[in-house]
Write a structure and sequence with these properties.
Layout lengths: L9 H33 L4 H4 L6 H12 L4 H5 L10 H7 L6 H31 L4 H7 L7 H11 L9 H7 L6 E4 L2 E4 L8 H14 L5 H13 L1 H21 L12 H5 L2 H14 L11
Antiparallel strand pairs: 1-2
Helix pairs in contact: 1-6, 1-8, 3-6, 7-8, 8-10, 9-12, 10-12, 11-12
Length: 298
Amino acid sequence: MLRPSFVPPWPIRRLRDLTRYRVDLVAARTAEKNRVEKLLEDACIKLSVVASDIFGVSGRAMMAALIAGERDPHVLAQMARARMRTKIARLEEAFNGHFDDHHRFLLARMLDRIDSTEADIAALDNQIEAHLVPFAAAAARLDEIPGIGPVAAAVIIAEVGVDMSRFPTAGHLCSWAKLSPGLNTSAGKTKGNGSTGHGNRYLAGILGEAAVVAGRTDTFLGARYRRIAKRRGNKRAIVAVGRSILVIDWHLLASDDARFTDLGADHFTKHLDPDAKKRNHIRQLEALGYTVTLTPAA
């Protein structure tokens, strides 16, 4: 049984204050960047269509020029740097809009707010690093998990702590975090409804981000993500892999001697039952319109 009213020690509470505020500031910065893109679209400036990141060196130089009064598409396009210079012709077309003083005023305010928020995030990162020192060993172990970086490790420690004695098993931790799918029982049949309930949004958010990153890796977690996404969609894959990461977190935090060991991207194929392999291949061929007849090899 979990203690109903657990108050984490003050070092964890202070770390949590910092990490949660950082998450909120990152969300605020993202919202402000979205406003910038919407404002440019309103002015028929299609910079985001050409540039993958309009807030890189080239994009910021072009937007600064717009604020300063430059309107010549050729001049603006020539501010491209590095690989962006291969897109100068498209950039010239992108700047054929009607950017006026109204857009200039708003863009200046939005970029100032983005810069201010980024400075605050950098200051928070320094504070988080300092407050994480007592938990450096635990953070280093979590950092070994695919998809988990220093920021994610700090958030996980801030939200669940490092004392796993209040969670008898990894399943208890997942249940507390609302990452255990609900079950519906009807007519003697039990089915998962896929719903995990509403848990800690900061923990769920960072585990979801880690799951997406892990899904791009050539690891066990990456293979698990792709298998589930193929059958049930990306959203379910994110939840499932996020839960797997949390299970690994519990084991790494429950023992100072525990270390992460990747099972490998080929874990599923190596341990798949031969009959299951056969059924999978037959199913895939039948889905392509073939009738399959199996004949044992000599």
